[in-house]
Write a structure and sequence with these properties.
The complex is a heterotetramer, with two copies of chain A and two copies of chain B.
Chain A (H helix, E strand, L loop, with lengths): L1 E14 L2 E7 L1 H6 L5 E4 L11 E4 L2 E3 L2 E7 L3 H7 L6 E8 L13 E7 L4 H13 L2 E8 L8 H6 L3 E6 L6 E2 L2 H11 L4 E5 L2 H13 L4 E4 L15 E6 L2 E6 H4 L2 E3 L11
Parallel strand pairs in A: 8-9, 8-12, 9-10, 10-11, 12-13
Antiparallel strand pairs in A: 1-2, 1-7, 2-6, 3-4, 3-7, 5-6, 13-16, 14-15
Helix pairs in contact in A: 5-6
Chain B lengths: L5 E2 L4 E2 L3 E3 L21 E7 L12 E4 L2 E4 L7 H13 L5 E6 L4 H12 L6 E5 L16 H14 L4 E4 L7 H10 L4 E4 L3 E4 L1 E2 L4 E2 L5 E5 L4 H12 L6 E4 L5 H10 L3 E4 L2 H4 L3 H16 L14
Parallel strand pairs in B: 3-4, 3-16, 4-7, 7-8, 8-9, 9-10, 10-15, 15-16
Antiparallel strand pairs in B: 1-2, 5-6, 6-14, 11-14, 12-13
Helix pairs in contact in B: 2-3, 3-4, 5-6, 6-8
Classes of the chains: A alpha/beta, B alpha/beta.
The structure holds flavin-adenine dinucleotide (FAD) (2 copies), flavin mononucleotide (FMN) (2 copies) and FE2/S2 (inorganic) cluster (2 copies).
């Protein structure tokens, strides 16, 4: 866990509201695992005050990449950054997905909704390197929300694409596609990242078929490294629901540990 | 080389930069980022006697140059602290201060009595000013009597120096500070957070699970500096300044206003090495101004 | 088309957006930038009975997302106002509110008695909460008794509705608001500025000529929203929300918290047409949410 | 007095800490007079909160220019602006210098210290257009603080250059040069802009020789258009010292009206 206040930006791609920034951060890069995240400073001064959590989207040699959707002021400021400028990043943070060697040769699903696809690209490459057969299930609201679909296709990933309005891929939710694909041939493992309702549905589908699943949760973060207790969500610890820090004990949790029901909390 | 040390009377700090409670975890979380021994000291997260669940999320809202938190003092309690954390802090050559919480006078006393049995604590900081616990944000530090009562009981029961942490949500922080001094506190720290609220206008719900929370960060600094100045000019015991410090210049404002030490809070969350930046700023200032002992500038504002 | 009008009981505003006192001059300064009649109304700069010199400069300090001012109510006095300014405001189809100041109860009464003789004023706003006048920043709004006394005298002496402007620098703004209501105020406005200080560390002098000043701007908004929510849930008379409003969303926070109207202050200095931006934001919100009468959302926060 | 929230930046020059931005603001440009200023927004959000006052440095066709020294966070943000981006400006504000037709054919001095040279460039061109013989007295701390010296020379202005350390032009204060030049041949009028001690000295020198002088003052500004009363300085009104608004009644004042003595205020 390191701070690199001056990671040099070496690449930028943008598709509408989605932006990919690549930057050199050799030490962080050496430690990074898929599912981990960075805390990124969006301005120098006191406003916006807090860093923004962003999943590690890719690692290539000594460079890392973040892929994000412009969601508000912080990400809008980040989107203005250009190659040659620097980025102040802290990381790698959190626990990451279980890239287990025993997945070699097995089929695994990576289910991403919207900007939730960000950490799954890094994950997919690591799983592929391990020898797993990765199927990407990538959903968005419209064709503008699945900007990475072409890349996954070009890089020969098996991909099921969905959009809510049918403007690209199959029409409907990505969870419907998951249900269908898992029905055809159950994977050894499901990894997912996306909005809460999607993750809840993924957990339900996985549980119904007894497929182990890992979900990457989101939460407002103060620090990202366990100091403020600001980022808690309801997660079962030894079977008992507790307010657990997403940044330290997550962001990735076994699907069955996450408590979705607000009343059962 | 400048002498950065400051004397609180009951405790000499190698430098005036402390990390503030609740923004520095139990200290250990920051070891990857800085050498804890570089700090004057740090105040660990508030401790009740037993473990505490804290408030439902969302617990944080960012505001212009500020942060509202409603953590609700989730924590592990004194026993787990003494068993799991304190042994790892004890050997550090820096002041470890414990932020003491209580739902009642008795609980403050129980916490202090328990901790009195442990080694490796430099002082207690009485958190009588957390706005996240009672429904309407009220706290003992709203009243001179309630403040004095807790200070008195804790001083009677405990063996260590006591820093009383005051609330800024009052008409006269001087009055409360004087009450704490009268009751025997060894120092006061101010300010805790400002009672605040934010509403998500789309859903018309409060943005915090707890409805109310405490505002911290650079936004509040000018109010905190004012309060420190008012209190320092009226108190005999030392004042520790807290509120929105990010840089050496920010810390200097408090010192010049009359604080003998400062605490860095929210800035730690943004930059885990923020305390070192503050320290470097102080060193640089002393060098530029030819100041041999930093303590000389305390309270020197020319009004 | 949404109905944006709001009813203060004593006054119906065409929309809830007022410009706050001291940040809108005497209104005329803004004519090059906006049509004054688009506003719900505006509150002119605080007026003492006679002309006033104000404080020595510097009078302004910028802070993170905030502004400290210590203007000290420099102004032309009621006679010059009535002669030179009011005739040019009278014909405007918008509520002109006069911010009334006084060094004593008697002066408030004198100002009101004088202005009672002039036409074209919709209401008086009693400024009992300016932190820039007394040496230690104290003001009548620190005390329920002093607040009640001024309100009572002004209500007795004057013929127009009275809005009492409260200070945020108190332990319980609810207590003061209740005292003002008891004494007969027709509405309360909150908040005035937060007592604050900034020090130039290079010279070790206060950055303001007056040493202390009042903090305003986005930095304080979360505290102001909290206070409005607390007061609105306890008062019968309408509450006007002020503090850090720049956008429609900011204004909506106050309305949803319980304010029946809002005032835009510091934002006017930065963008002289800030009130129109706020208004446009309210209109857009109502359209998106299918709200026919904006007044329906007042106080609807789901806590 | 107008607000142009989206004046398009069409040019940028920089010399160390000094920056010149040109932008299109046709309506403001049409109204502008030398010595007037603009209030310029340095960021979109609530930080830095206030606009920054900057003198009008030049007018060329429909474009205006500001010339500024990076003095803090606000000007540093402005310095990052690039052609193609927009600037949010309010103006023209204040009263400006007296570009009086009766100065035609007469000798006038324009005395600028450091960034105080900014409005004098616009003034010099307007005076020249009028037919006045303009002498520029331009002072800075070092050669890095007189970046416009080459331009004045290239544009054939009579110029006396001074630096405190002698690294360019004559060594010493620009006021010493003023004293000398005024001694040689007294001008019909002196215009000055710069730090307070310089302006005070200019006023003294002018008074001693009975030369009319106009000084452009600085002050912290809240609004720039007379609404907040934040920008006052001590100025004689009908002979009596009063707190006068720099933004509205200034920034340019007759030298004899300005009260420098803190005790006589
Ligand atoms: C561990 C983690 C990893 C993440 N990885 C990515 C990623 O790789 N790519 C990506 O595009 N986004 C990611 N996010 C989300 C991203 O952090 C937010 O979109 C970003 O912080 C918004 O900042 P902003 O200033 O642009 O928006 P703001 O103005 O702060 O907020 C815009 C909107 O988003 C909501 N919001 C803000 N922060 C969060 C949050 N942390 N969780 C949920 N809602 C929030 C706000 O309520 C508001 O409605 C991740 C979040 C977490 C916790
Ligand atoms: C009418 C007028 C015209 C001006 N024209 C120009 C110009 O053409 N070119 C130019 O470079 N500058 C000009 N200035 C000065 C310029 O406005 C300030 O340098 C700028 O506002 C500083 O902003 P900042 O955020 O960079 O620095 P800040 O961080 O705000 O301040 C940096 C330093 O400058 C001081 N300071 C800030 N504002 C002022 C002020 N208004 N007066 C005096 N000291 C101040 C602060 O105390 C601090 O020490 C003008 C000022 C006025 C009042
Ligand atoms: C997330 C968070 C948690 C906090 N927890 C505590 C606490 O446990 N005890 C306490 O006395 N103060 C607590 N505080 C208050 C800080 O110690 C400090 O007084 C306040 O934040 C002002 O300083 P700052 O502006 O530098 O953050 C907390 C503040 C924050 C932001
Ligand atoms: C420069 C300035 C002058 C002010 N003068 C007055 C005044 O004369 N009377 C008054 O009641 N409030 C005065 N105020 C307070 C504002 O009306 C308002 O209550 C406060 O600034 C908070 O709102 P804001 O954050 O939107 O500015 C002044 C504020 C500023 C910034
Ligand atoms: S974000 Fe601070 S503990 Fe998780
Ligand atoms: S800057 Fe506001 S009145 Fe001059």
């Amino acid at each position: 866990m390191l701070k690199n206040p001056e990671a040099k930006i070496v690449g930028r791609e943008a598709w509408g509201d989605y932006v990919l920034l690549r930057f050199e951060a050799p030490t962080i890069s050496a430690l990074a695992r898929p599912g981990q995240f960075l805390m990124v400073r969006v301005a120098d001064g006191p406003y916006p005050l807090l860093r923004r959590p962003l999943g590690i989207h890719l690692r290539k040699d000594k460079a890392l990449g973040v892929f994000f959707k412009i969601a508000g002021e912080g990400t809008a400021l980040l989107a203005r950054k250009r190659p040659g400028e620097t980025l102040d990043v802290l990381g790698p943070l959190g626990n990451g997905f279980s890239v287990d060697p025993c997945l070699a040769g097995k089929a695994v699903f990576a289910v991403g909704g919207g900007r939730g696809i960000a950490p799954l690209y890094f994950l997919a490459w690591e799983l592929r390197a391990l020898g797993a057969a990765v199927k990407i299930l990538y959903g968005g609201r419209t064709k503008d929300d699945v900007p990475l679909a072409a890349r996954f296709r070009d890089e020969a990933f098996d991909q099921v694409l969905t959009t809510d309005d049918g403007s690209a891929g199959r029409e409907g939710f990505v969870t419907a596609a998951l249900e269908e694909e898992a029905g055809k041939a159950a994977p050894a493992m499901i990894f997912a990242c996306g909005p809460d309702p999607m993750l809840e549905a993924v957990g339900r589908i996985a549980a119904a078929r007894d497929i182990p699943a890992e979900l990457s949760l989101e939460s407002r973060m103060g620090c990202g490294f366990g100091a403020c207790w600001g980022c808690v969500q309801r997660v079962r610890v030894d079977g008992k629901p507790a307010w657990v820090k997403i940044c330290e004990d997550g962001p990735v949790f076994p699907a069955e540990a996450v408590v979705w029901d607000k009343d059962a909390r | 080389m400048t002498d950065l040390s400051v004397d609180l009377g009951f405790l000499r700090l190698k430098n005036p930069v402390l990390a503030a409670s609740g923004t520095f975890g139990y200290g250990l979380e920051f070891e990857p980022f800085l050498e804890l021994e570089r700090l004057g000291g740090f105040v660990v997260k508030g401790l009740y006697y037993g473990p505490r669940e804290g408030n439902p999320p969302p617990r944080l809202v960012e505001t212009p140059s500020g942060l509202i938190n409603a953590i609700g003092l989730q924590g592990i309690g004194v026993a787990a602290f003494a068993e799991k954390i304190l042994p790892r802090l004890r050997s550090l050559k820096t002041a470890v201060i414990v932020n003491v919480c209580g739902a009642s006078e008795e609980e403050y006393v129980r916490v202090v009595e328990f901790l009195d049995g442990c080694e490796g604590i430099a002082a207690y900081e009485l958190n009588i000013s957390c706005p996240n616990v009672q429904k309407d944000g009220a706290c003992p530090a709203f009243s001179p009597e309630a403040t004095a009562a807790i200070v008195r009981e804790v001083k009677r029961a405990g063996r260590r120096p006591v820093i009383t942490k005051l609330s800024p949500n009052v008409t006269s922080v001087v009055e409360i500070a004087l009450a704490a001094q009268e009751a025997g506190t060894d120092a006061v720290a101010l300010v805790n957070t400002f009672l605040a609220m934010a509403i998500d206008v789309e859903t018309r719900r409060p943005k915090l699970g707890n409805v109310l929370g405490g505002l911290s960060g650079p936004a509040i600094r000018p109010i905190a500096v004012r309060m420190v100045w008012q209190v320092a000019s009226r108190l005999k015991v030392p004042v520790i300044g807290v509120g929105g410090i990010r840089t050496g210049t920010d810390a200097l404002e408090f010192l010049i206003a009359g604080a003998r030490a400062v605490q860095v809070g929210t800035a730690n969350l943004v930059d885990p090495d923020a305390c070192l930046r503050v320290l470097a700023g102080l060193e640089d200032y002393c060098r530029r101004h030819g100041i041999g002992r930093l303590e000389e500038i305390v309270g020197t504002v020319k009004t």
